Amino acid sequence: MSLKKIARKCGVTLSSLNDLNKGNVRASIAEKLGVTVSSLQNFVDGGSSTALASKIEITSSSLQELRNLIGQRGAIGLIIGLLLS
Known about the structure:
By secondary structure, the protein is an all-alpha fold. The chain has six helices and no strands. The chain is 73% helix and 0% strand. The model has no long low-confidence stretch (mean pLDDT 95).
C-alpha cells in the first residue's frame, strides 16, 4: 500500500504523514487523535504521555515501557495504527 493511500485512510495529508515518518508531529495528526502535539512529539522522541496513555487505556508508566521497547520507528507505527483505527 502506498503512503498516499495510508494517509488517505488515516484522514491526514501525505505531507503530515511524511513529517511523522521523519519524527515530526504536525497539529493535524494530534488533533485527529485528540491529544496535543507536544504529548505526541514527546512520545516519538522517547518519553511518555499521560494523554496518549489515557487514549489507549494504559498507564503512563506502561506507555513508557512500551516506548522503550519499540523505539522511535515503533512509536511512529503505533501513532499511524491509532490514526487508522
